[in-house]
Design a protein that fits this description.
Blueprint (H helix, E strand, L loop, with lengths): L1 H4 L3 H9 L5 H11 L3 H8 L8 H10 L2
Amino acid sequence: MAKALCLSVNDTYNTLKKTSTETNRLAQIGEILEVIFITILAKKQGITNPIDPQIEELTSKTKF
């Protein structure tokens, strides 16, 4: 994991120990571990469908 994050082993450990982290770093860690942290957080908050259906509809219409 340290190599994939371009960090030393010690820095990786410290990053994982933090109580908060930057979104882009969390996304990198999620990719490495094959985990989608936002989905886990949403479930803990009781959000079953975090995407507004109208936004989903508009997004699907604008894809090229």
